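Example pasted here:
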Amino acid sequence: MGTHNKMDFYDSLAVLGALAWLVPLISWIRNLLLKPNLSIISHKELEIGYSIDGPILNINLAFSVEKKEALIKKIDIILRHENNETHQFLWDWFEEQFLQMEISDPDLGSMPFKKTQKAIAIKVLTDTLIERKFGFQKEEFKEAYNKLFNSTNEIYNNIYQSSAGIDSFKISKEYNEFLDYFKNSFIWKVGKYSAKIKVYIEHVVKPFEHDLNFQLTNLELKGLETNINTCQKTIKNHYTKEDPDYKADWKLVNPYKIE
């Protein structure tokens, strides 16, 4: 074999070696540039409430993804009332139902086995459909609640350690501001609401969006308003221990989506 032929042979091997690396490199670059396409489906029924944690908005959502798997890291809901009053709800938890257990007692029917956990992230694989119940709350409510709770605790501990009785605590500014907070922070109103669900995926700047509308009736609002008193009773009993067996009965309403 001549020198020229040897060079051609080794050059060919070098080209083949480069091509062997080029194919996975192209695949890696393609996968890096490829963005997932997320589809969002919402259940026809929502769950609206108000509790010691503030305004509550829960809904079942289903996700499917094309092109590439997706990691959901954040979900927000921008809620707008027909009078243009706007609130932001942040993803707080999600619930997954695994199976339905049949109970021998016919009056009990079947019992779902569920797992509830705090919001961190959810992976959606291609060619799959996942469904979860998602809970959303207002972050501003929690921040203000914590400040009021801490200041009320401080005055309670000061009075408790002094000779002043519980009656002095009941008339304190901090305690009464805490109780008033639940009435002042009640946001629900009769009328139509529009909700924009924003789903944020890892490595995708722009969120995927899903719109829905619902309406609260006067009857539903009255049911929700009873939770204000329940919140105040819960706080009162926490400090005064007037009813050790007290259990809060939270009222939820389930409005349907409207087109």
Q: What stands out?
A: The longest strand covers residues 86-102. The mean pLDDT is 87. The chain is about 35% helix and 40% strand. Residues 3-33 form the longest helix (31 residues).
